[in-house]
Write a structure and sequence with these properties.
By secondary structure, this protein is an alpha/beta fold. It has helices spanning 15-27, 68-81, 128-137, 150-156, 174-185, 205-216, 239-244, 250-264, 280-293, 299-306, 312-328, 350-362; strands spanning 2-10, 32-37, 41-43, 55-64, 96-102, 107-112, 115-119, 142-143, 148-149, 163-167, 188-190, 231-233, 272-277, 341-346. It is built from twelve helices and 14 strands. The strands form four sheets. Strands 1, 2, 3, 4 and 5 form a five-stranded antiparallel β-sheet that branches. Helix 6 (205-216) links the parallel strand 11 (188-190) and strand 12.
Length: 365
């Protein structure tokens, strides 16, 4: 029997009755046993069309003999019974049942019979309307990617001054997305004081050390603000030891990793990371565009020249994959500076990426 966490929501019609009916139907489905049900909470809509009605949200814990895709199909069947409309993303709905956790299984956008499944749910770690009811019924349930309990995740987004880091490789759009989040949430905006000295195959340890120290300075814990609006940075210090592997010798990389560990111990680590994932073609196009509009000798000018070689897109893609691993795997050398909440946003379309990133941060409130 697998233990699974289900998120429940409704903002159309008789919300409480529909949620109660959905949970009742789910509990009598073959192969499913209802273990616990949270109370309902009224929450404001996050993302989606404007002027939606408030939601009632809750969670339930089930044990099931069904496989993850079978369970997903059962949730969809219950939604269909209660006339769920899927015509608009994040739109109003009679009932919404989300598979949040399936034991400690990790599935990344796996498609079976036309239905895509990602578990853990890719946006649950910043959603207070998900975590509060989940913690009510299963506070010690582990999140397999965060490497902590649901209670820890709720505590993580309940900071007095939240630190959000927008993370990605050159050309991902981190500066634009971070600026938009700060504008929407009134947060303090911290732009990277020094460009990442990422030039595959070359570079000096001195350059990397100087950039690391410059970027650490605005994040020092001894000067950290305490206002409630939070801080949004368009970089993550954990990028340094990962990206430096392309540019430094193994000995130099090890020294930088040691310096990084000492430096980040004196900074406020991100509570939330928004990882911007873009296709190699989109990244190369943006780097080339910036290079053509910046005439001084700088990172983008150099990368723009590199972008005309066949290896450039592959190098960016490899770095992007390693950064993703650094954010998601606790055994990596960056684990001590790794945010608990990581939201992956597709960044080929920057306008849509901005909307998704803002929604992820606004869901913390």
């Amino acid at each position: 029997m697998a233990r699974c966490l289900i998120g429940c929501g409704s903002n159309q019609g008789a919300r409480r009755e529909q949620l109660d009916r959905a949970i009742e139907l789910l509990g009598v489905m073959p192969g499913i046993t209802m273990s616990a049900v949270s109370r309902h909470r009224e929450t404001r809509p996050v993302g989606g069309p404007p002027d939606q009605a408030p939601f009632l949200n809750g969670a339930c814990l089930v044990e099931t003999e069904l496989g993850p895709h079978e369970l997903l199909g059962t949730l969809a069947a219950v939604e269909n019974t209660l006339h769920r409309d899927r015509s608009e993303r994040w739109g109003p709905r009679t009932v919404d049942l989300d598979l949040l956790l399936y034991d400690e299984l990790v599935i990344d956008d796996e498609v079976v019979d036309g239905a895509a499944l990602t578990v853990p749910h890719p946006r649950m770690t910043t959603r207070r309307f998900v975590l509060e009811p989940a913690v009510e019924i299963a506070p010690d349930l582990p999140h397999p990617l965060a490497g902590c309990t649901l209670r820890d995740l709720l505590d993580n987004i309940s900071q007095a001054h939240l630190h959000v880091a927008v993370v990605g490789v050159p050309g991902c759009g981190a500066a634009e997305v971070a600026g938009a989040i700060a504008d929407a949430t009134l947060a303090r905006l911290v732009h990277s004081p020094a460009p990442l000295p990422w030039r595959p195959g070359r570079g000096t340890a001195t350059d990397w050390s100087a950039a690391l120290q410059a970027c650490a300075k605005p994040l020092r814990s001894d000067s950290w603000p305490d206002d409630p609006h939070g801080t949004v940075a368009d970089y993550w210090l954990g990028t340094f030891p990962t990206a430096a592997e392309d540019c430094l010798t193994p000995t130099e990389s090890a020294r930088l990793a040691a310096e990084h560990a000492l430096t980040t111990a004196e900074t406020v680590l991100p509570h939330v990371a928004i990882f911007l994932r873009a296709s190699p073609a989109a990244l190369a196009e943006r780097v080339a565009f910036r290079a053509s509009h910046e005439h001084s000798s700088n990172l983008y000018a150099e990368l723009g020249t590199a972008g005309r070689s066949g290896d450039f897109e592959a190098a960016l893609s490899r770095l992007q994959g390693r950064l993703m691993t650094a954010l998601r795997c606790r055994h990596r050398s960056t684990a001590s500076s790794r945010p608990l909440s990581v939201i992956v946003v597709d960044a080929d379309d920057l306008a849509r990426a901005v909307d998704e990133a803002i929604a992820a941060v606004e869901a913390v409130a």
